[in-house]
Design a protein that fits this description.
Shape of chain A: elongated
Order of helices and strands of chain B: HHHHHHH
CATH class of chain B: Mainly Alpha
Number of strands of chain B: 0
Largest sheet of chain B: none
Structural class of chain A: mainly alpha
Oligomer: heterodimer
Number of helices of chain B: 7
CATH superfamily of chain B: Cytochrome c oxidase, subunit III, four-helix bundle
Number of helices of chain A: 3
Radius of gyration of chain A: 26 Å
Strand content of chain A: under 5%
CATH topology of chain B: Four Helix Bundle (Hemerythrin (Met), subunit A)
Distance between the termini of chain B: 62 Å
Largest interface: A-B, 59 and 61 residues
């Protein structure tokens, strides 16, 4: 069975592309792209990198369909969970992720003469 | 055990079917790992959506150079394990042993850099759970959430790298001892799947904790 085999050329081209994508992500960040576009571009490049690694390095392209089903469903569930949570945070009022202030005061000791009685 | 022929388990008809079952099992495991990390990514995404400015400042406070160095280290590790798999399938077992050991070494270097980064943060008074002097000077609670996410997510990822280093070292030793050879290359392929997965997770963590720092 000859499935799941990469040639040396495939490996080298794959990683040349991945290094270029890392540099591209870095350049975009240093160029000062900000806001929602920075997020879209950075996550988009990371997604393309993940796809390249999965297809070529993890040899998904040459694998049987049963493996492909797992490889497609797992990221879909990740996307579903993350996106629905973010939508919930953006749209629900009051926000479910409001952080209460941290109480950093040191509790003062009880006044002398007052002793706690052990409960029976 | 002979390096040439892997042992065929009694419930498989032949080695290719056994190899496919092993690969499918690893993919299922990686699917469950993806769901595990999705909880951590959801934690980050939810709080970043709610506190975008503090999270942006937190990312800007992290060391971009160390994060980028670690990205190149992990990517190089992935390249090395891919080359090791190619070498083993081509019958160059000694080269495969060397490349697999170098992949494990890349993982160790990654952990050293990550440790140095954590050490720098702790010297600044940044500890998980909002503990430390940094959070007295920056009392906004979202700072504590950002650095708890930072320590938690990169920490779980570092645990996965550590496990990967151990498995890679073990596999290199097995190949050196001639217990895994070209005919059983699927065993190295399964190990490489895990290492590539660890790499993919970092490719998303790198922008989230080091790149998304520019003011709107």
């Amino acid at each position: 069975m000859n499935e799941e085999r990469s040639t040396l050329g495939t490996v080298l081209i794959t990683y040349a592309a991945l290094y270029l994508l890392v540099v591209a992500n870095l350049v975009v960040a240093l160029a000062g792209v900000s806001g929602i576009w920075a997020l879209v571009v950075a996550m988009g490049i990371a997604g393309i990198q993940a796809l390249v690694v999965a297809l070529f390095s993890m040899e998904l392209l040459r694998s049987r369909r049963s493996i492909g089903v797992v490889a497609v469903i797992a990221p879909l569930f990740v996307l579903l969970l993350v996106s629905l949570t973010v939508v919930d945070v953006y749209t629900r009022a009051p926000s479910p992720l409001e952080i209460p202030p941290i109480d950093r005061t040191v509790p003062s000791p009880p006044p002398s003469g007052i002793t706690s009685t052990p409960s029976p | 055990m002979n390096v040439a022929v892997p042992k065929l388990q009694h419930h498989f008809e032949d080695i290719p079917k056994q190899a496919h079952a092993a690969r499918l099992g690893m993919w299922l495991f990686l699917g469950s790992e993806a769901l595990f990390f999705s909880g951590l990514f959801t934690f980050y995404a939810g709080y970043r959506a709610h506190h975008p400015e503090i999270f942006r400042l937190g990312v800007a406070h992290n060391d971009l150079v160390l994060g980028t160095v670690n990205t190149f280290i992990l990517l190089t590790g992935s390249l090395l394990i891919s080359l090791a798999l190619w070498a083993l399938r081509a019958g160059h077992r000694t080269l495969a042993v060397l490349l697999t050991a170098c992949t494990a070494l890349a993982g160790v270097v990654y952990l050293v850099v990550k440790g140095a980064e954590w050490g720098r943060h702790m010297s600044e008074g940044i500890f998980p759970g909002g503990r430390g002097d940094f959070f007295v000077e920056n009392p906004e609670p979202a700072w504590a959430v950002f650095y708890t996410a930072y320590y938690g997510i990169t920490g779980f990822h570092a645990i996965h790298v550590t496990v990967g280093v151990c498995i890679l070292g073990w596999t290199a030793w097995w190949m050196h001892r001639e217990r895994v050879g070209p005919a059983a290359a699927y065993k190295l392929a399964i190990v490489s799947l895990y290492w590539h997965f660890v790499d993919i997770v970092w490719l998303f963590l790198w922008p989230l904790f080091y790149l998304l720092r520019n003011p709107a």
